[in-house]
Predict the structure of Lactose phosphotransferase system repressor.
Amino acid sequence: MSVDSNERQRHLPAGRKAQLAAYVAETGQVTVGELAERFGVSIDTVRRDLDQLAAEGSLVRTYGGAVSLSTVSRTDRAVDQRLTVQEQEKEKIAALAAALVQDGSTIMINGGTTILALARNLGQHRDLTVATNNLLVPGALPPTSVRDIYVFGGAVRALTLATVGPVSFRGNTGAELDISCDLALIGVGAVSADAGYTTSNLAEAAMMQEMISRAARVAILADSSKFGRRLFAQVSELGAADYLITDAAPPPDLRDALASNGVELLTPGQS
């Protein structure tokens, strides 16, 4: 009885890895469990294969899976375009936000280009633990500033290259681990006196809410072009934050609402 050559090849390490890489390239994003079932191997084997393929530059490893290089390339172009919008304002906000981060602390940060600017501004910090759903952050963080980087798993939004899913990690036994942070730094799409902090994506809003709930302190990052607007999904009321970091003073109604909710306003040039 002959054995199909393709079936035999997929169970050999080199052949399996080649087919796995091709499948990721075709699919765009995959999970470890999906690959283990498709290729008939263990979870640990898939993890080793993905780690090796990532080291060879064949794909991008994520927590719980991988994404294709073409997905990263498309998203990089989209992110590059957004980085040029309010670029100077984002850099000012990032510098102010970085000043809130203490050496040796644990921070949670979400997706977005303002947060990406923050990551690049952490070069003077040391011994940080960073948890994020932003797949561009690990490459943007100065290596000398971090002790550990953790990326939350979930589906990958191709537009932003950020994951959407639970703000959690599981141990080797599969049990969910209890996690918290000293400071959550959250970029939002809009800020208004009546709606609070909002964003355009429902799943991202839920993820931001959970990051906020796990933080001892919360800083919201938003440039002044986002004032007085309301987007689809509310992240939280104004009072859920300790700080609003922005590039210019907000309009009077928003400024008064922030003050009445105990939110400290941080802008460049404050004495």
